[in-house]
Amino acid sequence: MTQDVSCANTVSSLRTDPFAGDELTRDDFLGGAVRIWQPKDGYRAGVDPVLLAASIPAQAGETVLELGCGGGAALACLATRVPGIICTGVEMQPAYAALAQRNLDDNGLAGAVLCADLSNLPADVKSQRFDHVIANPPYFEDFRAVAARSRERAVSRSGALPLEKWVSVASKRLKPGGVATFIQRADRLPELMSAFFACLGALELWPIHPRSTRPARLVLLRGRKERRAAFVSHPPLVLHRGESHEKDADSYTENVSKVLRSACALPFPVQNRHLARRGRP
């Protein structure tokens, strides 16, 4: 069922008009199990939202809120892998909020996308508590270095709100025992961990390395509301085999390839030790 995209707190510099058909491409994710409309110019989803979605231990009937959902790639991938979850997305850019709703609808996935910023969430979001809150917070990019046609991409990456605010909002929207999972650039890990420690417990860190010989470029960080457990740093997730890219070769490691091509889950290592307390298998 198609949902209306409700818009609030629109910033005048953001794009408000919907994307025209010739401004979009439709790209396969999860081996074609889900198809995502994306702008040719501007923010385009990469591997980050797919890995984020695959790492979420949601089950049918549970509620999921994504903060800053962009074009909805993470929500669509998660809802495709786990039918029956109840999805809500929040996105501050009206054009992207509408695109996210379209991507859910066109893939036959239930969910509502609301256009608002984190500083003033809609009442119907504030009144709810969710089993999972997920986010891929934007990062700083100098607007002066970005062409006008890609201004919405700069907005999506500008990081106007500190990570502390993102995590605080996520914590407030969780049920007791609920799970917050963020994916973020590795160079922002100190700030992200500080924010998580202030609001959440039972933290788990999963570094993501492009190759085994290279430093982490991304991290997945998970915490639980009103839960206590020792901090866990897991062995790294490695995306690619070998030390360098071979032309025209698919070098993804086996478990990552299964996520990207076959919609498989990417569970945190030893996560069942923690989730057993919530009655999960």
Note the topology.
Blueprint: E1 6-7, E2 24-29, E3 34-39, H1 47-54, E4 63-67, H2 73-81, E5 86-91, H3 94-106, E6 112-115, H4 123-126, E7 130-135, H5 151-157, H6 163-173, E8 174-185, H7 189-199, E9 201-211, E10 218-224, E11 232-233, E12 237-240, H8 254-262, H9 272-275
Parallel strand pairs: 1-6, 4-5, 4-7, 5-6, 7-8, 9-11, 9-12
Antiparallel strand pairs: 2-3, 8-10, 9-10
Helix pairs in contact: 1-2, 6-7
Describe the structure.
The protein is of the alpha/beta class and 281 residues long. The chain has one domain: Rossmann fold, CATH 3.40.50.150. The strands form two sheets. Strands 1, 4, 5, 6, 7, 8, 9, 10, 11 and 12 form a ten-stranded mixed sheet that branches. Strands 2-3 form a two-stranded antiparallel ribbon. β9 and β10 form a beta hairpin. α1 runs parallel beside α2 and α6 packs parallel to α7. It is globular, with a radius of gyration of 18 Å. The two termini are 31 Å apart. One of its GO terms (molecular function) is S-adenosylmethionine-dependent methyltransferase activity. It comes from Marivita cryptomonadis. This is Methyltransferase. Keywords: Methyltransferase, S-adenosyl-L-methionine, Transferase.
The span between the termini is 31 Å
Radius of gyration: 18 Å
- Per CATH, the architecture is 3-Layer(aba) Sandwich
The total beta strand count reads: 12
State which percent range the strand residues make up: 25-35%
Overall helicity: 25-40%
Protein name: Methyltransferase
GO biological process, one term: methylation
InterPro entries: DNA_methylase_N6_adenine_CS, SAM-dependent_MTases_sf, Small_mtfrase_dom, tRNA_Adenine-N(6)_MTase
GO molecular function: N-methyltransferase activity; nucleic acid binding; S-adenosylmethionine-dependent methyltransferase activity
